[in-house]
Amino acid sequence: MKKGYKRLLFFIAIIIIILLINTFTGFFSKFKIDLFLGLLLIIFHKFFVIEKDNNRYLKDILFEILFYVVLYFILYYLLGLAVGLARTQNYLTIDGLKKFIIPVIFYCILREIFRYNMLCKAEGSKICTVIVVITLILMDLTYNTIPTNFTSAYDVLRYVALTLLPVISRNICYSYITRKLGYKPVIIFDLVFTLYPYIIPILPNPSEYVISIIYLVVPVVFSFRILKFLDYRKDKIFDSNYHKRKFKGIILPIAVICVMIYFYSGYFRFYAVAIASGSMEPKIHIGDVVIVDQKVPKEKLEEGDIIAFKHNDVVVVHRIYKKVKLDGKNMYYTKGDSNNKIDDFLTEEEAIIGKVDTKVPFIGYPTVWLNKES
């Protein structure tokens, strides 16, 4: 074994020991891991020298990454229109900035520079490369906090499915791309892929297992497409209008999805609700989408109006059966048209989202079906 390999493996062994000790002590916070990575790079430079990342196709590759990021969000929001959209709680908040956004930016940049230099020093050695990837997997798991209090087999399986497998997939793919293209493309992709829940106000709301599958599969697809593009870029005459043509092809889907998000998000005047029960038949059927006008003055709502309101965090679409006044407040008895009895609760004005303006038949079936499956 080369002397350089021995020094590299010794360096890695120390890192692994520190990370394993932290599993039981919990010393590292997100900021401390950033500092730890920065210290590792300083030590690495002292003994090995930091390598520079120079790729002559970088500009074209970054355009390609941008295209696939946009395409990913188109598909992701199409999924969101089926399973539901939710407002981001930490959307550009000071707390989210301090606890997540800034630490993640530093961690991603430092980790990928560290990955690139470690892989460069491995010089194609399969053993060294595998050990480097394992080290980075352990580092990511430490960053996400490795639980030590598993109480059942279900806890273990849940951790493997939701955290371990996506981390393994990400690090294998990122390491492969880094060896081929350097660290800059990975930094760009990972920052977008990791930070968007904290910088976009409206997001799809799939189950955690669906999110886990997405985080498992997307890095693999990303790696495959970027490396295939690199082969195309090297082997064929590259058309300067290549990316312009690709982006023109996704302008219409982006526009359509933006309009649909407008209706489904609830941020604006009109709000779309997919009907999941037959309580309003024959007027409104399962799978219909009703458009709710949120700007209708609530004090003008009358008996016979169909309204959307929240009850126990669920959006309900029923007809006003009776309007009463209690303690100076307007209260409403509601009833589904096909129900035999009125609802066994009173609805306050604050819980009312708006008045049903119109309906669109059938287009809510995917939303209803996927939510029942989940």
What this model shows, in words?
This protein has helices at 3-25, 30-47, 58-83, 94-122, 126-143, 153-181, 184-199, 208-235, 242-248, 251-265, 365-373; strands at residues 85-87, 202-204, 270-274, 289-293, 306-311, 314-326, 329-335, 346-348, 352-360. It starts with a helix and ends with a helix. The radius of gyration is 26 Å and the shape is elongated. It is built from eleven helices and nine strands. The chain has 374 residues and is α+β, with helices and mostly antiparallel strands. Helix 4 runs antiparallel to helix 5. The chain folds into two domains: 3-261, no CATH class; 273-373, Umud Fragment, subunit A (Ribbon), CATH 2.10.109. 58% of the residues lie in helices and 14% in strands.
Largest sheet: 7 strands, antiparallel
Distance between the termini: 52 Å
Mean pLDDT level: 83
Order of helices and strands: HHHEHHHHEHHHEEEEEEEH
By DSSP (H or I, 4+ residues per run), the number of helices equals 11
Set out the fold topology.
Layout: H1 3-25, H2 30-47, H3 58-83, E1 85-87, H4 94-122, H5 126-143, H6 153-181, H7 184-199, E2 202-204, H8 208-235, H9 242-248, H10 251-265, E3 270-274, E4 289-293, E5 306-311, E6 314-326, E7 329-335, E8 346-348, E9 352-360, H11 365-373
Antiparallel strand pairs: 1-2, 3-4, 4-9, 5-6, 5-9, 6-7, 7-8
